[in-house]
Amino acid sequence: MKNLGGVFCRKQCLVAVLLLATFYLGMNFVTIEIYVKKNLSLKKRIEYNVKNDKTRTFSDQVGSESYADSNIHDVNLNSTSISFEHTTSASRRGDIPCPDKSPLLKGPVGVNFEGAEKNDSNWPPTFEEIAAAYPTLENGGYYPGPNDCRTENTVAIIIPFRDREEHLRFFLYYIHGILQRQQARYRIFVVEQDDDQVFNKGQLMNTGFIYAHNDTRFHPKCFFFHDVDTVSEDDRTLYRCRGGNEVLHLSHRIDKFNYRFCCGMTVGGVIGMTNEQFQKLNGFSNAYYGWGAEDDDINARIVWIGRFSIYRPPDDYIRFKMIRHENDKKNPKNNERVALLNSWNKRQSKDGLNSLQSTITSVVEYPTHTRILVKPKPK
What we know:
By secondary structure, this protein is α/β, with parallel strands linked by helices. The protein has two domains: about 45 residues; about 325 residues, Spore Coat Polysaccharide Biosynthesis Protein SpsA, Chain A (Alpha-Beta Complex). The protein is built from eight helices and twelve strands. The strands form two sheets. Strands 1, 2, 3, 4, 5, 7, 8, 9, 11 and 12 form a ten-stranded mixed beta sheet that branches. A two-stranded antiparallel ribbon has the order 6-10. The N and C termini lie far apart (about 100 Å). Belongs to the glycosyltransferase 7 family. InterPro entries: Galactosyl_T, Galactosyl_T_C, Galactosyl_T_N, Nucleotide-diphossugar_trans. Keywords: Glycoprotein, Glycosyltransferase, Membrane, Signal-anchor, Transferase, Transmembrane, Transmembrane helix. It is found in: Membrane.
């Protein structure tokens, strides 16, 4: 009987062990299945529907009087967010301030626009792959900042855009890494001209500024107006506004010009201003259709209207690389640019943020950026 009891006990124990093992393996299979499904979802094509029932011109929101007195917080349009699994800002809190110099900076970024060195036919990465590389992004290309410290550097990146999808993928791949290692809190706004008319960079910049200023998610203190084909080569090039009496021009050394500030350059490429500085200038001129002189116009506004100095960091590592490309057919050289520039001071008080009549046709929040589709006022 004792032997039978021992055999029975051993059988019961063996069954129990097998049941526990089966349960454990089953839980792991479930975990693996969830992990696989989550990662496979990154490969799916993102589809969206946009509500266009509340499009409006900015002139309905911004009167002809002082822009500073306008209520721009009513400008937001309905947007369709894309369902994507990202960390929420509620779980990313730090009670101590971030250090003035981020410990995450690594220096040279290794910018590569060719792809051959990587031996990778899929270069630049797709938007989905960029989102997978930066899983802490929230919809709209919003990064709530590091989870171990509290950053005071809140940055809106505003990119005037049309027909440069490949350039945008390069830009987003690098800029997200740079800004996150700088421990900034930021959001990327891509302001796309949504028509077949001549490109108007100034109206896109002004539209992007008003929309970003209206962002209740993080209230940016610093606005960078950024060409999509210009990428920083070093993450120590800080996207941090100077404020006060100084406007920041970052891209004064570009490989196209052998990293020399030359050739009649003003403040093109990458320029950073605070909200107060940009409003004092009345933003960019809306009058420049086509290529040329809109940067010279804002340069004059900075110096003679704002009475600001233009700060260009002297450090040797502050360099930018430009993507080589042909001239855009819908952005021809503006033959009126010289006459417009000569009359900039006569137009400044009534040509800019307070006279903007562009129309937002739709807003889409991708994981990597917010896409704002805009129709500028026709010429």
